[in-house]
Structure formats: structure tokens, C-alpha cells
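Before the break, one more example. Copy the sequence into your notebook; we will annotate it together after we see the structure.
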Amino acid sequence: MSPALLKMYVSFIGMGCMIASLLTIYLSRFKLKGFFKVFTAVIAYILMITAGLIIFFVVFSGPTSE
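Here is what the structure looks like once it is written out:
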């Protein structure tokens, strides 16, 4: 697998984490109460930070040679 293709798949994982965090933030704010609200909010923010770090890595690692 080429480095460019690997970078593309890593960016897809980052985008998936952002979509998952969006859905869990929506659930925690509008649909859940109590412990589940706090638990899903923590999971959502962990996913958002992870996605941000992945996208930061992909963007600032520069172009690939292939």
C-alpha cells in the first residue's frame, strides 16, 4: 500500500470520528439524561479531539511523493 493511499484511509478515519462525535453530541444534548448524557458527551469530545489530531497530522505532514 502506498503512503498516499494510507494517508487517505487515515483521513477517512478522522472524518468518521468527526461524524460519530457530531451524532453523540446531539444525543447527549437533546435525547439523553443523567449518567448517559455525561458519558456520551465525554466520548463525543474524545472523538472530536482524536479527529482533530488526525486531520492536523494529515494536513501538515505535507504531500506524498507518489
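Residues 3-60 form one domain. Helices lie at 3-31, 35-60. Try to locate both features in your own notes.
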